[in-house]
Amino acid sequence: QVRLVESGGGSVQSGGSLTLSCTRRGDSGTKYCGGWFRQAPGKEREAVAIIYPGNAVIYRADDVKGRFTISQEGVTMSLQMDNLRPEDTAMYYCVADWRLHLCGSSLGHYTYWGQGTQVTVSS
Fold first, then answer.
1. What are residue 9's phi and psi, to 5 degrees?
2. Rounded CA separation 10/18 (Å)
3. Distance between CA atoms of 114 and 29, rounded to whole angstroms?
4. Rounded to an integer, what distance in angstroms lies between the CA atom of residue 30 and that of residue 59?
5. Residue 72 in contact with residue 51, Cβ under 8 Å?
6. Which pLDDT tens digits describe the chain residue by residue (123 residues)?
7. For the purposes of burial, counting CB atoms within 10 Å of the CB of 4, is it exposed (0-12), middle (13-18) or buried (19 or more)?
8. How far apart are CA 62 and CA 97, in angstroms?
């Protein structure tokens, strides 16, 4: 059974940095795409960054370009978040799926979700 275990997150001031990690437990022999979605209070869940096997970044939200970097090594994905802004405050969820042809920014395409980790950026 596949599980996604998230770590990282926390509270920082505007301009600070945080790193999120997501490790896939189980089924290490299959290639997965994945990444992060986030949901701020009162807003819809949205894709942040998605990566394909081989470290090919296939999606990054416009407002995180130049600030967030997604990468993957083995079964662990990482999201390096720099120059954080108050509007980045949200619950962040990592996602993964083995159906590579469905990889993209639509949340409905992902079978596996992490438990979520809170990121809070104060001004």
1. 85, -175
2. 8
3. 19
4. 21
5. yes
6. 899 999 999 999 999 999 999 999 988 778 999 999 999 999 999 999 999 998 999 999 999 999 999 999 999 999 999 999 999 999 999 999 999 998 988 878 899 999 999 999 999
7. buried
8. 23
Instruction: Give me the count of residues in the chain.
Output: 123
Q: Which residue is associated with the tokens 């990690």?
A: 21
3-state secondary structure the chain: CCEEEEEECEEEECCCCEEEEEEEECCCCCCCEEEEEEECCCCCCEEEEEEECCCEEEEECHHHCCCEEEEEECCEEEEEECCCCHHHCEEEEEEEECCHHHCCCCHHHCCEECCCEEEEEEC
